[in-house]
Automatic annotation (TrEMBL), chain A:
Predominant cellular place of this UniProt entry's protein: membrane
Protein name: Carbohydrate ABC transporter permease
Keyword Transmembrane helix on entry: yes
GO biological process: transmembrane transport
Superkingdom: Bacteria
Organism: Paenibacillus kyungheensis
UniProtKB/TrEMBL annotation, chain B:
Compartments it resides in: Cell membrane
CDD domains per record: TM_PBP2
Domain of life: Bacteria
Domain (ABC transmembrane type-1) ranges: 69-283
TM helices/strands, residue ranges: 12-36, 68-94, 106-126, 169-191, 203-226, 262-284
Name of one Pfam family that matches: BPD_transp_1
Keywords, sorted A to Z: Cell membrane, Membrane, Transmembrane, Transmembrane helix, Transport
GO biological process: one example: transmembrane transport
Protein name: ABC transporter permease subunit
Family: Belongs to the binding-protein-dependent transport system permease family.
CC terms in the record's Gene Ontology section: plasma membrane
Amino acid sequence: MYFKTKGYRVFNVFNTILLILLSIMCIIPLVHVLAISLSSKAAADANLVALWPIQFSLEAYKKTMFNPVFLHSIWISVLRTVIGTAITLCLTFLAAYPLSKDNSVFKGRNIYSWIFVFSMVFTGGLVPFYIVIQKLGLIDSFWVLVLPGAVNTFLVILMLNFFRGIPKELEEAAFIDGAGPFRTLFTIYLPISLPSIATITLFSMVFHWNSWFDGLLYLNNASQFPLATFLQTVIIQQDMSSMSSSPKEMELISQTTVKAAQIFIGAAPILIVYPFLQKFFVKGMTLGSVKE
Amino acid sequence: MKTLRKNWPFHVMLLPSMIFLLIFSYVPMAGIVMAFQDYKPWLGFTGSEWVGLANFRYLFERQDSIQVIWNTLVIAVLKLIFNLFVPFIFAILLNEIRRVKLQRTIQTLVYLPHFLSWVILGGILIDLLATDGFANRILSTFGVQPIFFLGDNDWFRFTVIASDVWKEFGYNTIIFLATLAGINPSLYEAAEMDGATRWKQTLYVTIPSMIPMVAVVGTLALGNVLNAGFDQIFNLYNPLVYAKGDIIDTFVYRTAILNGEMGFGTAIGLFKSVISMILILLSYRLAYKWANYRIF
């Protein structure tokens, strides 16, 4: 057996070490930022913190949590994630079912799938899109965060591939018992598609939680910003004008530790759902992309 | 008529999605006429002056837009290559780890960065890669002079590509691991009978079995070659590195939205959309031809 040879054992040791190092590299930046957020201001400003907090302090989190703009942006993000995911899920589930049918069963399928695919491969570009949003009166509205991205062709494809894997006999049996497509979809397909619904839910949640550009583009008032947009303006652009204007708060935001705490809070929900997510998405991804 | 009566529930199910696609995908396509106008918001589509191809001529006369197209291609192509080969090699190496628990743990850690946004990672990287940041402190222990990763034109592209590969390589490994798991074990057994070492088995069994998937992933990525990564560049760049780091999407944002050159911005957007569409359709066709891959 090859893995008993000396050469392979040496390789195995080096390989294991290399991969462990690589995987550690993937989380070091996060550990670093967590360490800074938990250190004292003095230690962080003096650049002393590496991977472990120095002079442990929760001060940064306390300050962040007393910042009303920050808290409100979390609320907007939660709201958008819940509503946006719900809408996307309904649309995806409904659209994927007819699209998963054979051409012989559903004649219009080809036309519909072309409409979906073409929307994926060709776009009007940023400027015309912006003008449409403007004409619809969605600028400065909460709905601009939810509606434009509601249909996601990629997720529809994942879902319809899952539907195709369900044995046809199940549906035929339902038809014989007199169930129509709607009834079949909701009473037969819905319960068995829970794993793939979970995948889509989690993809959609991550998408909404992470989205920042639409907020920056369509919302003029910083008090309406979702968290990701708020963090973008404050941490990346270092634009304090989106903060409340009191000097006390301006000072608050420029501190290294508070910045780190905000970054970490921004990443926290992902870090929390991630372990649950991982169980599903590996299966979902390969189901959607590898086909016989 | 008969089929319509039978299939009406299907049409009803598709209706909501169609409405959304019509409003948010197809109506904006009509806005493309702006590319042929000197668009003024207060005059609208009907009132703005028609200028024919002037916006496109301007696009190819301006020094900066040529540079931007070039930057986009360079960054995207390098990303494509590295995002193909790093996960490929990583998957093969990871597959050699026999301890299931360790393998799972490594997987969990390397997939993670994919799910964090470039805002979060940008915030971390800007700090980490500053001249007095954590990365340079480590380098200085090896006697390396501080490197201005995000503010130096020569280093910026490297940083962008390296950080993108860092973020995505784990996630891109998934598909290759799935392929590896699908290789018929009897191939390995036969090779072993013939006295092949593990290295030879990798060379003659593993790699050839994975080539079709590499071809599919590579061709599909080809359609993305004008998307050099708006989110990433936008969150990492600054005026110091516009020369080498500005890409089509960030350029459109700055000229059209910030400077108000709407017609010009639309023209670049259209240029990009048309080329992208051709590339995507081509890559789907090739993926279908080579590996029987179909998206729908």
